[in-house]
Structure formats: C-alpha cells, structure tokens
Amino acid sequence: MDIFSKIAAGEIPSYKCAESDKFYAFLDINPVAKGHTLVIPRREVDYIYDMDDDELAEYQVFAKQVAVALKKAFPCKKVAQVVLGLEVPHAHIHLIPMNSEADVDFRREKLKLSSEEMTAIAEKIRSNF
User: Fold this and answer.
1) How does pLDDT run across 49-78, given as a tens digit for each residue?
2) Among residues 36, 90, 92, 94, which one is catalytic?
C-alpha cells in the first residue's frame, strides 16, 4: 500500500477536504498556495491515464466538485488543475487557487503553514463541498 492509499484509508493523518467511496481530497503538505489540494483515487493506480474511461470521467467530476468548493472557500480567477509528480506512484491531481499563472509555479518556495492554519483551510473547503 502506497502513502496516498494509507492517507485515504486514515492510516496516515491528513487534512481532509472531501471524499467519496472512490476518491479522496486532502491538502498538499507542501502547498504552493493556500488551499492547494490533492485529489486521488482510492484505488491504487500509478498514472491518471492508466484509468479506464468511466473511472477517469468520475475522477474528473469529483475533482470538479472539489474545485468548485475550493473556489468558494478561496475566491480566485480560476482553480488550476495540474497533473504532475513522479515521487508518489499513485495518480493525483493538484487543484490550486490562482489569480495568475505565477500562482502555479512549483519551483517557488512552498508555504509554511501551521497545523492550525491547515486545519482551518481544510474545514473551509470541506464546508463548501
């Protein structure tokens, strides 16, 4: 079981933003912006495009619902969707509130937020989901 599966199963703590029986959304612990959320399938699959069409469609609809909640919680021009990352062999979508493309620059220094701030951010998104 990989780290994201353990997070979705509750074996590793996370800042949960939303969940369904098939998908789980939680805050990125190294966010590029407040509200930076990861959306994963509960099923272990390494690459988003390894999913069959029906599962991928459901995944995108769930991510859209999380993005709508995220935009309500953190008003912005758009919520960016980024499929990036090789370090965890589990499909994941980054959802990031953005007002400019610079808000989605993964090379810049990550935010350092306290546990209290992360908890409040997750609750804000969850309450809009």
Assistant:
1) 999 999 999 999 999 999 999 999 999 999
2) 92
